[in-house]
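The authors assume throughout that readers already know how a fold can be written as discrete tokens. The format is easy to grasp once an entry is in front of the reader. For illustration, here is how one protein appears when written out as sequence plus structure tokens:
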Amino acid sequence: MTLTQIISPLVSCQALKHLLRAPPRQITVLEADIGKQCYSDFQAGHLPQARYFDQLECTTPTAFIPRGLPDMNCFEGYLTRLGISNTHHIVLYDRSPTGFFASGRAWCLLKTYGVDNLSILNGGFHGWVRENHKIESTESNDAQEEGAFTEWQQRAPTDMIIKGDGKSV
């Protein structure tokens, strides 16, 4: 049984706390944001073992699409530098009031690029703090080891849209 079969798409703070303690370390926690403007908040305090995930990394904004999809090769390299591998289960969170603004977009972005092992932390950063779980200001050393993505496949939008009869549109 894989982690993805065990871990719900919506993870409670208590469940994540237990997952972070359990070996082997196959969980990657990403604080999702749109741009580098909130990196100082991340540095001041974040969830244990979290890495900062800037969704605009590798994008080229245009007048019509200011937050488009990143270049596939650049994005793969970015995730690899974050220390993420195909075998990792990624748990996303953000600092919005509900914890679903940037993490929801990150979930869609990662799904578009073929990542299936994803969850969102219910309540995000504020939910974690409300439940009195610890935060830390040191960055995870895990990211110092590069990840290993292989056969990275970008999905076409039609691969992600299914009609009611179970067939792709």
Notes: The longest strand covers residues 27-33. Residues 101-112 form the longest helix (12 residues). The chain has a mean pLDDT of 83. Residues 3-160 form a domain with the Oxidized Rhodanese; domain 1 fold (CATH 3.40.250.10).
